[in-house]
Amino acid sequence: MHVFGLVGNPVGHSLSPPMHERAYDALGMDARYVTFEPDPASLERAITGARALGIVGLNVTIPFKRDVLSIVEPDPLAARIGAVNTIDLSTNTGYNTDAVGAVRALRSHGVGLSGTAVVVGAGGAGRAIAFGLADAGMTVRIANRTVERAHELAAEVPDASGHGLNSLAELLADADVLVNATSVGMDEDTSPVPVAALHSDLAVLDAVYTPIETRLLRAANEAGATTVDGGWMLLYQGAAAFEQWTDHDAPIDAMNDALRAQL
Ligand code: NAP
Question: Would you give the DSSP letter of residue 22?
Answer without folding.
Answer: H
